[in-house]
Design brief:
Length: 615
């Protein structure tokens, strides 16, 4: 493992009540006695970076149970936490093969905390083991945390330990203690006595989860054979246009299985030839049948390709039937545009599969309702954060927020509340808390409007008012098609830049331009910034994009903007008396303002209008 340098190092455990404990770390020895509950804790003197050391724990009541831990380094320990973008593994991220091949860093160590949902605060993690970073282990580590640790290790020339405590799809409330949540009107009722689950609920939910995935992955054999058959009677099915999403067809937003069918007549030249069917851009999990024969099974939308071979023996000269069994999950399900990507071909010509399809839900047993208790307030804190306290650490890196987008404005309260909670409980002062602002995501909209994602980013920016915090902007390295952008190297690098400045005191440019103030000048508004570095520029060398302007009516429209030294001037069209400017205020904005160090400007708005309608 890695223990934190330059602090009194806490080490704790359990032994026989009243036993004398001798703890040795290198040449340092500390003695203590256990309390009536058998618990003990010691603090070793401050040590400089180095090692390896051996830690030995001896109990007078049970000398045979002496614990000896070897290969310990003294360096900097960072807690990496959050949801899926922090959990995303090196093997899942960009350039994985090359990164794994060059991952020999014996002075970087990871402890990956196992997932654990607990009703009460736990004294120990469910499981987890410190591992040295090498080509065999790195693939399972958080990509963001690994690239952060690698740069810190190189820049500071010290061992780096990462404690990774993450769970995808989880809100900030799940990572906050119940005691803290009780202090806020936003959350107190959700954690009040009688409102929380009990351990028996977890067992039921686990069984339902197993059943859920069994039903999703394996349809009833008789139903599968009957519904995919070309002569199946689908006269009472509804019609929908493809490309199209099931949520737009009047199906209630619940996890369910939907069957889709389409009859097609192929040219005579296709007969008995092996064909290629391209499903385009499906959403969620699906299987496809051609004339009753399965040609693909349980393919997820994240698969790199959605093209499948159709054996020539299945191809008829007359009418053919394409059937899709698709899961409607988490509000998604269907076939996304463009229509040109949904077709069947023999290699020379294409027959479109877009247009009218028939569909029906309720043909299979209902999927059990999964409670997803990992999203409940305080339950992850209890099992995955509380056991880590008070392990000595340098600070925290955090990547989360996607699961709070639907209530973005509450995040202005909830996120700082969690930071304060952790700092109070660790009792290691206001340790550095570095976090990633949400990346750009979703398809770009041509008309300026409101955005929950922009509002969540604003809540993250406002959290910079908390002492010893810093934020890595990722507005330029997201992915319109995926909530999990693959460029984790740059995310880790930007977090490390912030650490080098905030935690290690280096005089460097670590952030992109941050909004400072605005001033109206006729039909324009002049914007000033902090963190301009060597000066303002555009990422692509083109004219500025991403700025919108509005008059008193609050209707924003795209605006011309120019760089003027370390400021930006934004112009309104003739006839508009401008009162407000916004920059990069969208789920996936087209924006290009940076400083000359290459770091993106942080999204902002100059108005404080309350947003009541969010698209």
């Amino acid at each position: 493992m890695v223990l934190q340098r330059d602090i009194l190092i806490p080490v704790w455990g359990n032994a026989t009540p009243g036993a004398s404990i001798k703890a040795q770390l290198g040449k340092e020895t500390v003695d203590t006695k256990t309390g009536k509950d058998g618990k003990w804790m010691v603090h070793f003197p401050k040590l400089k970076a180095g090692g390896p050391y051996t830690l030995k724990i001896i109990s007078s009541g049970n000398p045979a149970a002496t614990i000896i831990l070897e290969g310990i380094l003294i360096g900097d320990v960072w807690l990496a936490s959050g949801q899926s973008n922090m959990e995303w593994q090196v093997q899942q991220a960009g350039n994985a093969r090359e990164e794994i091949e060059h991952a020999g860093f014996p002075e970087i160590r990871f402890l990956v905390v196992d997932h654990d949902i607990e009703v009460k605060e736990q004294p120990d993690i469910l499981s987890g083991k410190w591992k040295v970073c090498d080509t065999a282990t790195v693939k399972d580590f958080s990509a963001v945390a690994y690239y952060f640790a690698r740069k810190i290790h190189r820049d500071q020339n010290v061992p780096v330990g990462i404690i990774q405590s993450t769970w995808g799809g989880t809100p900030v409330e799940a990572w906050t203690s119940r005691d803290k949540l009780l202090t806020s009107s936003l959350t107190s009722s959700r954690v009040a006595e009688g409102s929380m689950p009990v351990p028996a609920d977890f067992v039921t939910d686990s069984l339902n989860t197993i059943r859920f995935w069994q039903l999703l992955y394996q349809p009833p054999a008789a139903a599968e054979k009957e519904i995919s058959a070309p002569d199946y009677n689908d006269a009472d099915w509804q019609e929908m246009n493809v490309p199209g999403l099931l949520k737009d067809q009047g199906i209630k937003p619940a996890e369910t299985i939907v069957w889709m069918r389409k009859k097609i007549v192929l040219p005579a030249s296709f007969a008995e030839k092996e064909l290629t069917l391209n499903a385009g851009h499906p959403e969620m999990n699906y299987s496809i049948y051609f004339n009753g024969t399965e040609i693909c099974k349980n393919v997820w939308n994240a698969a790199p390709l959605h093209t499948f071979k159709v054996p020539g023996s299945l191809v008829r000269t007359e009418e053919n039937t394409v059937t899709i069994r698709i899961a409607m999950l988490w509000g998604g399900g269907g076939l996304n545009p463009p229509a040109d990507d949904i077709y069947i071909t023999e290699g020379n010509s294409r027959i479109s599969l877009a247009g009218k399809w028939k569909f029906k839900s309720g043909l299979e047993p209902a999927l059990p309702v999964i409670q997803n208790y990992q999203t409940y307030p305080s339950l992850l804190y209890n099992g995955m954060i509380n056991p880590l306290i008070p392990f000595g650490m340098k600070g925290v890196i955090w990547y989360q927020g996607e699961a709070n987008v639907s209530a973005a404005y509450n995040y202005q309260t909830l996120f700082p509340m969690m930071i304060k909670d952790w700092r109070a409980r660790w009792q290691q002062g206001n340790f550095p808390f570095l976090y990633v602002q949400l990346a750009n995501f979703h398809k770009a909209k041509p008309v300026p409007g409101e955005s929950d994602w922009a509002a969540l980013r604003e809540a993250q920016k406002l959290t910079l008012s908390q002492e010893n915090t810093a934020m890595a902007c990722a507005i330029d390295i997201g992915d319109a098609e995926s909530i999990h952008p693959l460029n984790k190297q740059e995310v880790g690098r930007r977090l490390a830049l912030l650490a080098n400045k905030l935690a290690y005191g280096q005089s460097i440019v670590a952030s992109g331009p941050l909004y400072k103030a605005s001033q109206k000048e006729g039909n324009s508004i002049r914007i000033s910034f902090t963190d301009t570095g060597s000066g303002l520029a555009t990422k692509d060398g083109a004219s500025l994009t991403g700025f919108t302007i509005a008059g008193k009516d609050g209707r924003f429209q795209h605006a011309k903007a120019v760089i003027a030294g370390n400021q930006v001037v934004v112009f309104a069209d003739e006839g508009i008396d401008p009162v407000a400017v916004r920059y990069a205020w969208a789920d996936n904005p087209a924006c290009n303002l940076i400083n000359k160090e290459g770091l993106p400007a942080v999204p902002f708005r100059t108005d404080n209008w309350k947003i009541t309608t969010q698209e």
